[in-house]
Write a structure and sequence with these properties.
Helix content is 27%, strand content 24%. The chain is an alpha+beta fold. The protein has a single domain (5-139), classed as Gcn5-related N-acetyltransferase (GNAT) (Aminopeptidase). The chain has a six-stranded mixed sheet, with helices on both faces. The radius of gyration is 16 Å and the shape is globular.
Amino acid sequence: MSQGLGAVAWPIRTERLEIRPATEVDGPAIWHYRREESVTLWITSAQLDRELYLADFTETSRLAKTLVIELDGSVIGDLMLAIEDAWAQAEVRDRARAVQAELGWSLDPAHTGNGYATEAVAELIRICFEELHLRRVIAQCFADNESS
């Protein structure tokens, strides 16, 4: 069973990026690209009103599963790592608690096409298995979202 994102020694560096937990002050930078049509088209909870977005973003439950991707000190994307219970038969359900993660990601369109999302998500998968000791990782995307 995972102890959650608090068990990870943040920030994590990759070859080009830094990944760290989101804080309230990251909201405006993330909203800046999440309001773009090329991004809102593919996310299920697009909020175009800045104040409503920031209110949602700063909810404790959302911040607890949101990470930011930084390039040279600037936020260029965000990641979701939601630890959850896995499906299991009734007799082993207790062994399926907090052993799976759902991943999500969004990148500022100004930074797409450079492999940053691939680099960040690959590191997130490594964190899931090697640091959080999860057993299953899932991610979903719309079939037409070819860049994901």
